[in-house]
Amino acid sequence: MKLLKLAAISLVCLFALATGIGALLPPKVLVSRAVNIKAPAGKIMTELNSLAHWKNWVEGMNDASVHIRSANEASIGKSEVRIVKLTDTMVVSEWISQRNKKQVSTIQLIGGQSENLTIVQWQFEQSVGWLPWEKLGTMMNDKILGPMMEKNLEKLRQYVEAQTGNL
């Protein structure tokens, strides 16, 4: 009985400690990467404004698990992707997982008006709840999303520069 009581108290204390540490972490997590592309913003935007064009630079978009329903909606693996805002310098999309967790992706073009160099900045933002395992799990977001974003931005750079002859 004493052992069971000790285990219960230990679990409560561990939960309280994890919740306290989680309370110190922010409720929103942001992962951001950027790349310089030697091309005008308009040429880059043609590759960003339709999910059908993403197959040219996003790894895995040619897989059988990808179903593009329209220029603005697709199923990618176990996630639903929808472009929710589109301007001449920005694409905002929502990525909703099977568990109904939402991440907002923003791809923004900076510069490219007078010179032939455009900065493409891509970020994922996720809101998390108060549960300790949700907050502590977000510490891995940068390690998981970061390399994938870097690789895809590099593929975008290579593809666009090859199309415009700026290699």
Task: Please give a structural write-up.
By secondary structure, the protein is α+β, with helices and mostly antiparallel strands. The protein has a single domain (27-164), classed as Alpha-D-Glucose-1,6-Bisphosphate, Chain A, domain 4 (2-Layer Sandwich). The chain has helices at 2-24, 41-48, 132-137, 141-164; strands spanning 28-37, 66-68, 73-76, 79-86, 90-96, 102-111, 118-127. Strands 1-7-6-5-4-3-2 form a seven-stranded antiparallel β-sheet, with helices on one face. Strand 5 and strand 6 form a beta hairpin. The protein is elongated. It starts with a helix and ends with a helix. The model has no long low-confidence stretch (mean pLDDT 86).
Q: Short summary of the structure?
A:
With 167 residues, the protein is of the alpha+beta class. Helix content is 37%, strand content 31%.
Side by side, the strands of the main sheet go 1-7-6-5-4-3-2
Write down the secondary-structure element order.
HEHEEEEEEHH
Number of individual domains: 1
Q: Assign the CATH topology.
A: Alpha-D-Glucose-1,6-Bisphosphate, Chain A, domain 4
pLDDT < 50 stretches: none
Query: So what's the CATH class?
Result: Alpha Beta
Described by strand count, sense and barrel closure, the largest sheet is: 7 strands, antiparallel
What portion of the residues fall into strands of 2 or more residues? 25-35%
Shape: elongated
The end-to-end span amounts to: 73 Å
Rounded mean pLDDT is 86
Descriptive tags:
167 residues; alpha+beta; 7 strands; 31% strand; elongated
